[in-house]
Amino acid sequence: MQDDIDRFVDYFQTNLVELRALQSPHAELYRKVMYVGILDTLSGVVMPHRTGSRERFVYFLQRFCRWPDGDKVSLPHLMQLLRKNPDPAFEKLRAWVLTRYKAMPAFSGQVQSIENDPSCEEVRRMWPAPKEHRTPLEGVDLESLQHWQLMYAYRNSLIHALRTPGYGMEFGSDESPHYHQMSTPATEDREVTVTAELVYPWKFLHKLCDTGLIELRKYFLENEINPFDSYVFGSYWLSELNR
User: Fold this and answer.
1) Distance of CA 104 to the CA centre of its chain
2) Average pLDDT per run of 10 along the chain, which is 243 residues long?
3) Which residue, of 33, 116, 145, 172, has the fewest CB within 10 Å?
4) Are 144 and 58 in contact (CB under 8 A)?
């Protein structure tokens, strides 16, 4: 079984080496598509019986990728959620968020790490009780703004639209998720807008995959699980025909 586990892990690690060396004008985008695809694949291998891709993907990040800031709540996304819902029940939280948002170093021209984002528990302590409000915005709740969950939205945009969401840019050697300021010029119908754009650099995605593989190998060995048991092999493209 150890040979199978090593063969499985080596296959993906070889792909990671090739991705890092990829040469193309669009290499950054292609790498990111492949990285989230690898994370998605690994989550399906270790949790083949969970039907929801979001649940598998997010739990894999939480359990195997050692991402300490994954539970943080993206401050700009939280600010926008509270702008979209003017309910007075959120007034105390909105004031607290607005103060922190305006003080973001990103608005002073700095590249700001997401490690300064608030934790989910920190925000939840000021979140109004359910009896005081309905869902802040249809389809968006507090947990949706955690970086683990935002990474799933990132994955969807890359895989289904071949683009990264938002307008963030990478700056050379960036290896950690961060924010930077973006200014949009004024038009006849709109004033100048200034935003803090979230960026997940490709080198960070590479690290998630590499760490995930290391942790997954340990998990398979300790639990005596053969990763190939999660696959259905055969000549036919419809897996049901190969069972």
Assistant:
1) 21
2) 94 96 95 98 93 94 97 97 90 95 92 95 89 70 95 98 94 87 77 90 97 97 94 90 89
3) 172
4) no
Query: Which residues, 6 or more positions from 143, have their beta carbon under 8 angstroms from its beta carbon?
Result: 120, 149
Quote the CA–CA distance of 33 and 125 in Å, as a whole number: 36
* Residue 159, in any domain of the structure: no
Q: State how far the Cα of 23 lies from the Cα of 30, in Å rounded to an integer.
A: 10
Q: What is the DSSP string of 68-94?
A: TTTTBB-HHHHHHHHHH---GGGHHHH
As to burial, measured by CB atoms within 10 angstroms (0-12 exposed, 13-18 middle, 19+ buried), residue 174 is: middle
- How, if at all, do strands 112-113 and 178-184 pair? antiparallel
Q: pTM value?
A: 0.92
- The SS3 assignment for 151 reads helix
Q: Is 137 helix (H, G, I), strand (E, B) or coil?
A: strand
Q: In this structure, is residue 151 part of a structural domain?
A: no
Contacts of 157 (CB under 8 A, 6+ apart): 163, 164, 165
Taking Cα atoms as reference points, which of 154, 180, 168 lies closest to residue 32? 154
Determine contact, residues 12/228, Cβ cutoff 8 Å. no
Nearest to 151 by CA among 45, 231, 39: 39
Q: Report how far apart, in Å, the C-alpha atoms of 3 and of each of 10, 48, 214, 227 are.
A: 10, 21, 15, 11
Q: Provide the domain count of the chain.
A: 2
